[in-house]
User: Which sequence fits this backbone?
């Protein structure tokens, strides 16, 4: 055993689990493209101010969860990205994407970093898939990103998820609401914890996001943002709900939902699962028209998006038995050497099979024939191709179907032909 362990909050993904990841990623790629989204990849680190401005300096992410460092003594601080939305908007603005086309639909599957206390479903290095629809400000755009997210869950077979949704209104609505919250929480100042006291000064909406059980009763009595929304904000929200209802997507309006990032306006949403324990959010998102202006754009850029935690998604899928059909794919053929001195010939055959696109395995450790057969079964090879002295001389090889135990003797050309048969390829899903 190595004296080194993976860093706390980071984990290794071994082949069997990697196959599960690949399967989920495949579904994400397919559905994203079905909805017209194209993949974007941005750098793993960004200048720290991007997240301070974009996510908001009073949020937990910026306040205590960022991995930031200074690469040069007098250089600017940089941060390992804790989320993708700010980086994607930065990239879109930097490239002036909106001058090329008015709407951009981008998606990603990538690694993120947050300095949180590791626990089940919460890591310091984790992954998200997500989508950002930039350039349209409409309930239809919000409904489209929610629909894509829910279709991914549905396609993967997840059940028991709860979609909660709320409207955070526009900036005027929130300004009025902030004053109302200040007036409400002010008299409770002595009962609030330190971080809520600080939030009361800087950003009272964040108090609603507090998980501190001691102040939940106070929070429960706070005024509701919904009562401060303008008529047009209410209409906008109602239209999003209308689209979801039309598409048979179940939701629950939750007027307390504020989300942990400051860039949201109008619709915000979160999906939770009871399979997850304390960290029950599998994904979330919303509209974020003001983010571009925070990043230096001269005007708002309408946008909406979501992100889903891959690890949490996989935890739910494992618990719900959704990987059962995912058989690890073994090689089609295992080249079995009857004697170690035939290794060169065997390797030549294996090379020819692989060149012909046939998934092939061969023992490189000069093990006994029995050990090779054990290995072939362990890795679920469909066929064994035997290489003995007679085979080398005659050019005819014994091919054994390891499922039916049928055995035939054939030339290499005939072997190639059989293994190329569509039925065989279908059987092993080549
Ligand atoms: P978020 O709610 O911070 O939103 O993260 C989305 C999801 O990432 C969470 O629901 C959770 O499943 C997963 N996640 C977050 N932190 C961790 C962690 N430490 N370990 C494991 N999983 C985690 C955002 O990141 C926004 N950028 C979403 C968005 C996109 N809004 C608009 N566009």
Assistant:
């Amino acid at each position: 055993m190595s004296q080194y362990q993976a860093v706390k909050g980071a984990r290794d993904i071994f082949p069997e689990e990697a196959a599960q990841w690949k399967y989920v990623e495949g579904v994400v790629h397919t559905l994203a493209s079905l909805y017209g989204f194209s993949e974007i990849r941005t750098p793993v680190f960004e200048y720290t101010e991007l997240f301070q401005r974009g996510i908001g300096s009073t949020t937990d992410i910026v306040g205590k969860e960022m991995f930031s460092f200074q690469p040069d003594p007098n250089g600017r601080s940089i941060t390992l990205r804790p989320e993708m939305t700010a980086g994607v908007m930065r990239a879109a603005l930097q490239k002036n994407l909106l001058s090329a086309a008015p709407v951009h639909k981008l998606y990603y599957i990538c690694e993120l970093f947050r300095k949180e206390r590791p626990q089940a479903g919460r890591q310091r290095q984790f992954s998200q898939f997500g989508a950002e629809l930039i350039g349209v400000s409409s309930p239809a755009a919000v409904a489209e990103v929610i629909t894509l997210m829910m279709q991914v869950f549905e396609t993967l077979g997840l059940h028991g998820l709860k979609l909660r949704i709320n409207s955070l209104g526009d900036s005027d609505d929130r300004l009025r609401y902030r004053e109302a919250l200040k007036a409400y929480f002010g008299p409770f100042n002595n009962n609030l914890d330190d971080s809520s006291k600080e939030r009361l000064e800087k950003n009272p909406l964040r108090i609603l996001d507090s998980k501190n059980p001691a102040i939940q009763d106070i929070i429960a009595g706070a005024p509701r943002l919904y009562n401060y929304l303008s008529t047009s904000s209410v209409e906008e929200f109602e239209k999003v709900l209308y689209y979801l209802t039309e598409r048979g997507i179940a939701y629950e309006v939750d007027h307390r939902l504020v989300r942990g990032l400051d860039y949201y306006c109008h619709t915000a949403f979160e999906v939770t699962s009871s399979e997850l324990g304390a960290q029950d959010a599998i994904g979330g998102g919303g509209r974020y028209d003001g983010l571009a202006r925070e990043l230096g754009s001269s005007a708002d850029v309408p946008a909406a998006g979501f992100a889903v935690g891959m690890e949490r998604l996989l935890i739910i899928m494992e618990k719900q038995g959704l990987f059962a059909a995912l058989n690890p794919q073994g090689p089609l053929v295992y080249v079995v050497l009857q004697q170690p001195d035939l290794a060169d010939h065997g390797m030549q055959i294996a090379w020819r099979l692989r060149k012909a696109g046939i998934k092939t395995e061969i023992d490189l450790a000069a093990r006994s024939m029995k050990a090779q057969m054990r290995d072939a079964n362990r890795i679920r090879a469909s066929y064994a191709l035997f290489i003995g002295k007679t085979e080398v001389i005659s050019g005819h090889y014994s091919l054994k179907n390891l499922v039916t135990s049928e055995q035939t003797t054939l030339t290499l050309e005939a072997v190639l032909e059989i293994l190329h048969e569509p039925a065989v390829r279908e059987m092993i899903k080549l």
The longest helix spans residues 15-34. The mean pLDDT is 93. Residues 83-85, 114, 116, 121-123, 126, 128, 130, 132, 260-261, 281-286, 288, 305-307, 309, 311-312 surround histidyl-adenosine monophosphate (CB under 6 Å). Residues 175 and 228 are 9 Å apart (CA to CA).
